[in-house]
Amino acid sequence: MLHFLLPLLFAANARAFYLPGAAPHNFLRGDQVPLFVNALTPMLSGSDDAKLKSLINYDYYNSKFNFCPPKGGPPQKQPESLGSILFGDRIFNSPYDIKMLENNGTCQTLCTQRDVTAADAKFINDRIREDYALNWLIDGLPAAEMKLDTRNGDLFFDMGFNLGNDDGPLSELPALNNHYEIVLRYHEPVPGNYRVVGVLVWPSSIGGPQDGTPTCEPDKNNPLLLREDQTHTIRYTYRVTWNVSDTPWATRWDNYLKIFDPRIHWFSLVNSLVIVVFLCVMVSMILLRSVSRDITRYNAIDLSEDVQEDWGWKLVHGEVFRTPSNPMILSVMVGNGAQLCSMVGVTLVFALLGFLSPSNRGSLATVMMICWTFFGGIGGYLSSRVYASLGGTQRKKNVFMTATILPTVIFSVIFLLNLFLLGAGSSGAVPFGTMLLIVLLWFGISAPLSAVGAYFGSKHGAIQHPVRVNQIPRQIPPAPKYLRPWAAALLSGILPFGAAFVELYFVLSSLFASRAYYAFGFLALTAGIVGLTTATVSILFTYFCLCAEEYRWHWRAFLTGGGSAFWLLAYGLFFWASRLSLHSMSSAILYLGYLFLLVMLDFLITGTIGFLASYWAVRRLYSAIRID
Ligand SMILES: *[C@@H]1O[C@H](CO)[C@@H](O)[C@H](O)[C@H]1NC(C)=O
Ligand SMILES: *[C@@H]1O[C@H](CO)[C@@H](O)[C@H](O)[C@H]1NC(C)=O
């Protein structure tokens, strides 16, 4: 069973990995093997209690790093997908001269950078202290350091390698790695054709005089230290070793996608399942027993006696479908939530089918963007139908707000964060062209689709309600404390959050610490469980509300559904305290900004699930009783 489930849950097995059409690249002996450089990212160092020290990416060719520029012209940007750009990839060509199977083990000089100023030396040292890593790509494979998993002794590839070293005696003045030992593993499927199946880099620091013939032999006692009060000369050297491998091309990613501790994912799953079982038992006890008892009693009394004595949720039958306050905002939120919800659902299906592995760079974000754009129709349709059902009349305003409010909010937040990134000299800022493309997707496709959806929504009209609304609103008796909106939201949020928080750790780590995430099977299961839990808990709370003769359930249902978002916010702050130690103001603002977006989207999605589930349940409930 485990052998069957593991590949499914991690979606990490071999062949399912590549988008149809992604073919292996065959090299002949002597063919140029291009090496591309990506932005420098802060890395979590190996130890368990390591903290991430920054969130800002830097361009490889940021002049302060003084890396060797390509020969003959300025660095050329490589084409990338939308998602890849959004997630911070900035890929350029490089001066490394690598030819298939040639120069095996030859020490080569890349270039010698003279006049590295004291200010640049300080900049480089600061980045080394923040554990920045270089990210190279050869034939689509990231350069990695080979590491040993101390738990089980397995070797695995950790993507990226250190800019420098500030451990132990080097904590005073860190050493810059200016020599790269590159081991390229190749596979020979047919004689004469070679494929790259592994890229390993061991960086090291070679001090001493930076002129003359290089030896490429690092001397542990003489690293390259950049004192921050003088100019320096840095010579960059590299040595390529070709090593034959029997890993076929199709499984070349397996070494990279190491599952650190599968037991944690299983623990998370069991944890979620326990919560679901607990909920199911509770719901079946409360809802099924008491509701069916209520219904028989309500209907029986009518038959046997002339005096009708109502109690509980039947009392408010003339109120439950009364228009809530701000039906416009509620319906816009539900519409946008439904759009996001469908986006997440379809993206997870794609991920499960294995299309979104790290080997297709940025595919996850690209698929999400495209789904969101095309599901504008769903948002418009639901928003306008819910709006009509809630008794709203300003249809045009509803369409307009559904199509514009959320994108505007997201866009403004990202724009503000961009300003901070630009101020910090980071490469992570979304380029102008990409911004334009997103605006185009939004105005050109998403907004019109939203309008089309709204047209069909208003054509189908309001949802019919089983009971009529009384003319005069009832008095609402004081409700118990736990049914107050915010208390209810926090209480009900615990269960969905509890079902997800272990998996959440991995998601946050991959979002912020650029760890690859590929346990999509677990993620999909967890998402399903969160959806189910959210729906059930909201229905329960709505039922309690109605029993307490509190009929203003619409907003409460949304709030109780979205309750887990408040816990997500708290968890995000906890993650900051425990896993990050951000030195710069911009990193902190960046983290808070992204966390805010994440929480907001989560609130919309889970709130919508809660609202729609409660709506369904209330309609079912009141269709079951007879009212004269
Ligand atoms: C390159 O050199 C290494 C060790 O020096 C050796 O193990 C490897 O087989 C060589 N590769 C080729 C293609 O000659
Ligand atoms: C090259 O391959 C051999 C055999 O697969 C292995 O023992 C050796 O460690 C490899 N060398 C490097 C530098 O990876």
Automatic annotation (TrEMBL):
Residues 1-16 form the signal peptide. Belongs to the nonaspanin (TM9SF) (TC 9.A.2) family. GO terms for cellular component: cytoplasm; membrane. It is found in: Membrane. Pfam families: EMP70. This is Transmembrane 9 superfamily member. Keywords: Membrane, Signal, Transmembrane, Transmembrane helix. GO terms for biological process: protein localization to membrane; vacuolar transport. InterPro entries: EMP70 (IPR004240), MFS_trans_sf (IPR036259). The chain crosses the membrane at residues 266-288, 329-356, 362-382, 403-423, 435-456, 486-508, 520-546, 558-577, 589-618. It is a multi-pass membrane protein. It comes from the Eukaryota.
